[in-house]
Design brief:
Helix content: 25-40%
Radius of gyration: 23 Å
Distance between the termini: 24 Å
Strand content: 15-25%
Number of domains: 2
CATH topology of the largest domain: Aminopeptidase
Strand order of the largest sheet: 1-2-6-3-7-16
Shape: elongated
């Protein structure tokens, strides 16, 4: 395949996507979802628009039917522009400069959207599924870490993948493992009193100091075979109403990252017990999902590994990430989950966000080859 012509084709799609604002806030993905629908319908895909929240439109497009279900996912929303003066070009125009495509969302995650749309068109014209179904999903509410995107599609049973391939700027490396995430709130209660006579009260902040000390002294992180480490961070503390009043309430909110092999419920109980032993009056789970890990022998991992080697001439590289993808919603489902895509995460969420065009071309060829291999397996 002529890589130059392919680059021009992908750049044209990416240009349309970048030109459609889909920033969070407000997180309105109506227009970009309509673009994806209108792109896919003429190709013969059965397309649904599903929405849990007003303005958050999610696209589900199917080709074929039955099992296995190979599902591709990319999120359509982006962060905001930020300081407009920091951009050297129009953030809503895909600008090719020195081999890089600049524009808001170019790396995260509209380059992958362009790859998935191109792949959908290529497959519809030449390589329709021989068995099972091929599904492309384009969702919102990802930058908000909200429940209205991929989580909603799972909740509704709109997608039931055997293999789920999620888009992210990984420089076409493979993310096969993600830590789980757990958010908790611990509370201490005391007795309010006048600050001029603090001995008549019981400071909830001082009690929380003991809880924080207990956490710092007793939490022990673990390391997985792949090098991931479990972590605990206290991200927020609130306590007191006035300087001259002994506070009767204090809360901290914590972020706990779990290794894929850690049991979610057991980790919560362990941390709850630790906090209560140190003096917390209550500990509540705010939200969270366990981690996931794909087997090296899984069909998707093998296919993408072979495709990367075939396209690049190099073995597939693995990447550990600190964040969490929408794959976390499927972590308990016993399916194969992997993450890959063009671009570097360090080049996203910044002014002059960009992605190398040759990396987008490379991603397209890798994805097509992987689908070919999967359809033969």
């Amino acid at each position: 395949m002529d890589r130059r012509a392919l680059g021009e084709e992908l750049l044209a799609i990416l240009g349309h996507l970048v030109a459609i604002p889909s920033t969070y806030p407000p997180g309105d993905t109506t227009r970009i979802a309509a673009y994806c629908r209108d792109f896919l319908l003429p190709l013969g895909f059965r397309v649904e628009l599903l929405s849990k929240n007003p303005g958050t439109q999610n696209v589900v497009a199917r080709l074929g039917s039955g099992k296995p279900s190979l599902v591709f996912n990319a999120h359509t929303d982006t962060v905001g522009v930020g300081e407009r003066a920091a951009w050297r070009s129009d953030p809503f125009k895909a600008t090719l400069r020195d081999g890089r495509v600049y524009g808001l969302g170019a790396a995260n995650c509209k380059a992958s959207m362009a790859v998935h749309l191109w792949l959908a068109r290529k497959i519809a014209k030449t390589d329709k599924p021989r068995r099972g179904e091929l599904v492309f999903t384009f969702v919102g509410d990802e930058e908000n870490l909200g429940p209205g995107g991929m989580a909603y599609l799972r909740e509704q049973g709109a997608v039931q993948p055997a293999t789920l391939v999620l888009a992210a700027p990984t420089q076409n490396r493979l993310v096969l493992e993600e830590r789980g995430v757990m958010w908790l709130r611990a509370t201490t209660r005391g007795k309010a009193a006048h600050a001029g006579a603090p001995q008549t009260g019981d400071s909830a902040i001082l009690k929380m100091h003991k809880v924080i000390s207990g956490i710092s002294e007793n939490f022990r992180g673990r390391t997985s075979k792949s090098g991931h480490r479990s972590t605990l961070s206290i991200g927020r503390i609130r306590g007191g109403e006035n300087i001259n009043v002994v506070p009767d309430l204090c809360t901290i909110e914590m972020d706990r990252r779990l290794l894929p092999e850690e049991d979610f419920d057991a980790v919560f109980l362990e941390l709850k017990t630790l906090c209560e032993k140190a003096g917390a009056n209550s500990v509540e789970l705010l939200t969270g999902t366990p981690g996931f890990s794909a087997l090296e022998t899984g069909p998707g991992v093998r296919a993408f590994g072979e495709a990367i080697a075939a396209v690049t001439g190099r073995p597939a590289q693995r990447l550990n990430v600190v964040g969490a993808s929408d794959g976390r919603y499927f972590a308990r489902d016993g399916i194969e989950i992997l993450v890959t895509g063009p671009g570097d995460g360090a080049d996203s969420h910044i002014p002059d966000e960009h992605v190398p065009l040759d990396q987008v071309v490379e991603a397209a060829l890798i994805h097509r080859k992987a689908v070919e291999l999967l359809s033969c397996s």
